[in-house]
């Protein structure tokens, strides 16, 4: 990333100092104005899997991506400002692009369509980098936990087999080990589930923000000359 002003690591790394910050609720998206000649892709909210609605990390990670997107913005008028304007007025409304472009020209006299598309591609690339990085982090953490559970199960199963040969004298120890074995899955499933849900939220947050960005890019190509 070109900027480190926003803490993307909160996707998978719990930090008490980070938890006290960034708790403001994400701003709701502006309503989309219907048009009869809509050539834009469907909005991201229409393509989310049903189980995403039960993901407790989804809104949090949507906000992480929104703030991360904002942290990439540089001074002056570029794609980010046009994106915000178009999203507020209506992403499928051709006039919203013309109005935003005119406003941008009043701020940046040399503003061009090519410049906007170039900056739009920059944001897409940077967000893809973040998603790839933390998708890898999540997969590594999940793999580490899977390996730990497998080793613990193997070791305990071996101990159980040995204890079963000692019959009555070791019956108490045998039962104790069986109880430990039974507890392994319940104890670790919560962590596995949390990591999986965060990975899903990471994917969906990327999909949501990139869909809206690509929609605006489509609008720029269609409505700006």
Kindly summarize this structure in a few lines.
The chain is built from six helices and no strands. With 225 residues, the protein is mainly α.
Structure description:
The chain contains six helices and no strands. The protein has 225 residues and is mainly α. It has one domain (56-223). The radius of gyration is 25 Å and the shape is rod-shaped.
Distance linking N and C termini: 31 Å
What series of H and E elements makes up the topology? HHHHHH
- How large is the share of residues in beta strands? under 5%
Class by alpha and beta content: mainly alpha
* Low-pLDDT windows of residues: 1-5, 15-47
Q: What Rg is obtained from the alpha carbons, in whole angstroms?
A: 25 Å
Shape: rod-shaped
Question: Which percent bin holds the helix content?
Answer: 55-70%
Whole-number mean pLDDT: 80
Total tally of structural domains: 1
Main beta sheet strand tally, sense and closure: none
Number of helices: 6
| Total beta strands | 0
């Amino acid at each position: 990333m070109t900027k480190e002003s926003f803490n993307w690591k909160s996707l998978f790394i719990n930090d008490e100092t980070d938890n006290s910050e960034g708790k403001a609720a994400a701003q709701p998206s502006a309503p989309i104005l219907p048009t009869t000649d809509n050539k834009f892709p469907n909005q991201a909210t229409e393509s989310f899997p049903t189980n995403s609605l039960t993901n407790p990390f989804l809104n949090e990670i949507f906000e992480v991506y929104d703030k991360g997107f904002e942290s990439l913005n540089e001074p002056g008028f570029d794609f980010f400002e046009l994106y915000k304007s178009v999203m507020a007025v209506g992403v499928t409304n051709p006039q919203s692009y013309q109005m935003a472009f005119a406003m941008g020209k009043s701020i940046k006299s040399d503003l061009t369509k090519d410049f906007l598309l170039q900056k739009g591609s920059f944001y897409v690339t940077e967000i893809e980098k973040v998603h790839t990085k933390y998708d890898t982090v999540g997969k590594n953490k999940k793999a580490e936990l899977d390996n730990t559970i497998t080793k613990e199960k193997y070791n305990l199963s071996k101990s159980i087999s040995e204890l079963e040969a000692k019959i009555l004298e070791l019956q108490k120890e045998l039962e104790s080990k069986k109880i430990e074995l039974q507890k392994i899955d319940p104890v670790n499933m919560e962590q596995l589930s949390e990591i999986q849900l965060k990975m899903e939220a990471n994917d969906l947050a990327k999909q949501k923000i990139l869909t809206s960005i690509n929609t605006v890019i489509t609008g720029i190509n269609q409505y700006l000359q």
